């Protein structure tokens, strides 16, 4: 998950909003998946 966070930061730096949007969706999906496993 950390690599995806770093990638999102880099994507935002270069200004690709569409790619940043997709990276945020992927990150949120991973976070939800992790939360389901801890419950």
Task: Walk me through this protein's architecture.
It contains two helices and no strands. The chain is mainly α and 39 residues long. It has one domain. Helix 1 packs antiparallel against helix 2. The longest helix has 22 residues. It is elongated, with a radius of gyration of 11 Å.
Secondary structure tally: strands: 0
Rg, rounded, reads: 11 Å
Low-confidence region ranges:
none
Number of helices: 2
Instruction: State the share of residues found in helices, binned by percent.
Output: over 70%
N-C termini distance: 19 Å
Name the shape in a single word.
elongated
Structural class: mainly alpha
Overall pLDDT confidence: 92
Biggest sheet character: none
How much of the residues is beta strand, in percent?
A: under 5%
Number of domains: 1
What is the H/E string?
HH
């Amino acid at each position: 998950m950390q690599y995806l966070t770093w990638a999102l930061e880099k994507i935002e730096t270069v200004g690709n909003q569409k790619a940043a949007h997709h990276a945020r969706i992927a990150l949120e999906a991973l976070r939800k998946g992790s939360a389901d496993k801890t419950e």
